[in-house]
Amino acid sequence: MAQQYRLDSVLLPQGWTQGALVTVAEDGRISAIETVGGTGGTGTPQEVERVSGFVVPGMPNAHSHAFQRGMTGNTEYRLSARDSFWTWRQAMYGLANRIEPDDLQVLATQLFIEMLKAGYTSVAEFHYLHRRPAGDHYPDGIGLWDAIIAAAAASGIGLTLLPTLYQTSDFGAAPLKPEQARFASDTDWFLRRVETRIGAERSAAPAALRTGAAFHSLRAVPLETLREAALALRRIDPALPLHIHVAEQVQEVDSCKRHTGRRPLELLLETGLLDQYWCLVHATHATPAELQGIAATKATVCLSVTTEANLGDGFFETARFLKLGGRLCVGSDSQATVCPAEELRWLEYQQRLRKKRRAVLADKLDPHVGTRLWRDAARHGAQAIGQPAGTIEVGRRADWLVLDGAHPSMAGSVADNALDHLVFAGGSAAIRDVMVAGRWVVKERRHAAESTLQARFAELMKRLAP
Predict the structure, then answer these.
(1) Angle, vertex CA 404, rays to CA 37 and CA 12, nearest 5
(2) What mean pLDDT comes out for the span 402-429?
(3) Is 447 a catalytic residue?
């Protein structure tokens, strides 16, 4: 049955609107929006739910590794004067090889609840845990995939599952190391499993579940294998979301050049495969020519600034990419921080520190930095994960956040600067209610499952601690 909502103040594609009557169909999509003006409630029908506060699109999380929630806070100590991504990776492998499906479901459910409360209403799970720790398959083949799907259902978050192809340990088709045995995926097995999942989804038509695919990196998938698999996936679903880590680390770029004579982004661009259905994760060490090439393909770039900072990756040339018409979205990646407002704040702050000026990423259409960043990241994040979200308009899913205008972080705010307050004055503290696919999953800052999950999560984290 359709449900109507009277929104006092809502960010629509054309801008802020005071007073809108929004109809949400049974499938969770918006079927009508009528501007009614004002915020008065007299004469409002009993069946129309009144929503006070500032209503904004929920943020898609375009890049997540849920199992890494199990190491948050446990790697912030010094091993040597040359600690880096590559030393952190050994701790990540240690955790990855101790996670079982039940553990992953608990971790992911807790994480997805945290995402919802922070403002992420959907997530792309870049998932490369496929096998048992010894390297053999689980009896049903995809127990770890199912753990992620079950966690999304329990939390109510929208999910794009990205089963990830992972075959080599470095450029030159170097064999996988023992600690990477769980990640191994044969191309034919991988394609069959993805096709089966997509077929099941077409039959069931789930409201907030989508399957895409990912290639871990050019280190982990030889270029010819990537090309063949990408073309096969396109035959399965022409609009399938495809993601890949690329050019995150200088060492990665240098190794690629040694083995191929090309930089990793050069190789990807030369394949001619990139289009609006691809998402390039990090692209930290992109040249100006590569940024221009990416922008021309209409592919998205997903930045996970808090993870990139945590791992010492480097700075992405955000201002340059946006001037080229590039499409940016954000993700929580290693879960160093689970907060889209913080990702966007530090996206801007990186540029301020480099350029020594303020409001770097605002533009003439959106002079408010928070509004510009939130709107673009939500819209392009929905593109990246292949979900009908990211904006509040007819045909899109009703994924939205309600910002509490009475919260101290919103004090003195009006609609035009509400997102500036969210991004720069309080993070997610002002988020009062969260809706996904027309269903309230967070009300008054509480999720229905969080109290019952708390003890199980605490026990698991104690067991997983190094």
Answers:
(1) 40
(2) 95
(3) no
